[in-house]
UniProtKB/TrEMBL annotation:
The lineage of its organism: Bacteria, Pseudomonadati, Pseudomonadota, Alphaproteobacteria, Rhodobacterales. GO terms for molecular function: ABC-type ferric iron transporter activity; ATP binding; ATP hydrolysis activity. This is Trehalose import ATP-binding protein SugC. Keywords: ATP-binding, Cell membrane, Hydrolase, Membrane, Nucleotide-binding, Transport. The gene is sugC. It comes from Roseovarius litorisediminis. The keyword Iron does not apply. Its EC number is 3.6.3.-. The keyword Transport applies. Pfam families: ABC_tran, OB_MalK. Residues 4-241 form the ABC transporter domain.
Length: 358
């Protein structure tokens, strides 16, 4: 297990990058705590896999250093970093049995035969492949082969870190849930440092102790699921986390109120003068429909998703989403919305601004 330090790290795929825009991975300075589980979350092309491959040694950064437990491994090959990596698509030895595939990383390091047998049996049970241990990998489904890849990544207990690059892409939905649960259990049992790349917020939020949200090659927030939900530090975090995501509305902010298309929205904090693009953000869970006060809206449609309803409304060209508890009545005269002041965030140029007590 290892603490992983990213020191002044950045990467460009261009030979002579001239500006920040030329970098696929913009400058990072972070310490990732030994033994924690992290998820790298973001849309395609945001730099997640680039960062993972730099950590694993498959890619050499354009600038900066990678340290494992304060030891510089920037120029160390992958084999010397003592990590296990599972890729998006299965990598298995077709001519070997499932048992042999799972045992290979341990046998390659001279582990005791009795330990190998016991550990392989434990991992096979974890991935649901006890009945196929003696089958050749050739001819198995992509789903089964990826489970072998996951098992082979988890079979060693002495690694510095376990790295997963969207490993559940080819796994069926039910097995995804089971394997996420098993990965979480494995982490609690052995305390490996784990880094899990995904574009799926459900995978990230259910797997990780801390979620690392990336946007346009930059880490925009590292936090617990609760922190990402309640205090998105960047409008992208608010948009990307949640279903539906945070409502983001252009506004003017004056002290402890926001002016939105001529209407006032009370704020729980007081703000000084803000420059640039100013917006307020509030999650649909903290928006309430009203008949007589608040911002005037026009309801476009109502979606019943079982546990609650999602109301899609229009406010002078800006879409506002409202979550209404199942069973609550939505009257024909409910054409105004109120925001819970304690859950209204203020943003300047996409970054959250910390106010002062009102």
């Amino acid at each position: 297990m290892a603490k992983i330090t990213l020191d002044n790290l950045a990467h460009s795929y261009l030979p002579n990058p001239a500006s920040e825009d030329d970098f696929a991975l913009k400058e990072l300075n972070h310490d990732w705590v030994d033994g924690e589980a992290y998820a790298l979350l973001g849309s395609s092309g945001c730099g997640k896999s680039t960062l993972l491959n730099i950590i694993s040694g498959l890619l050499h950064p354009s600038q900066g250093r990678i340290l494992f437990n304060d030891v510089d491994v920037t120029h160390a090959p992958t084999a010397e970093r003592n990590i296990a990596q599972v890729f998006q698509f299965p990598v298995v030895y077709d001519t070997m049995t499932v048992r042999q595939n799972l045992a290979f990383p341990l046998q390659n390091r001279g582990a005791d035969a009795g330990y190998v047998a016991a550990r392989v049996q434990e991992i096979a049970r974890m991935i649901g492949m006890e009945e196929t241990l003696d089958r050749k990998a050739r001819g198995l489904t992509a789903d089964a082969k990826q489970k072998i890849s996951l098992g082979r990544g988890m079979v060693r207990e002495d690694v510095n870190a376990l790295l997963f690059d969207e490993p559940l892409t080819v796994i069926d939905p039910h097995m995804k849930w089971e394997l996420r649960t098993q990965l979480k259990s494995l982490h609690h049992q052995f305390g490996h440092t784990m880094i899990y790349v995904t574009h799926d917020q459900t995978e990230a939020l259910t797997f990780a102790d801390k979620v690392v949200v990336m946007f346009d090659g930059r880490v925009v927030q590292i936090g617990t699921p609760q922190e990402l939900f309640e205090r998105p530090e960047h409008t992208f975090v608010g948009y990307f986390i949640g279903s539906p995501g945070m409502n983001v509305i252009p506004a003017q902010v004056e002290g402890n109120r926001a002016i939105v298309s001529g209407s006032q929205v009370p704020l729980a904090q007081t703000y000084g003068k803000l420059d640039g693009k100013v917006e307020i953000g509030v999650r649909p869970e903290f928006v309430r429909l009203s008949e007589d006060e608040g911002l005037p809206v026009k309801i476009r449609r109502i979606e019943d998703v079982g546990r609650h309803k999602i109301v899609r409304a229009d406010f002078y060209g800006s879409e506002i989403n409202i979550i209404v508890e199942e069973g609550a009545q939505i009257g024909p005269d409910m054409n105004r919305v109120n925001f819970d002041p304690a859950h209204v965030n203020v943003y300047a140029n996409d970054w959250r601004v910390q106010g002062e007590a009102a």
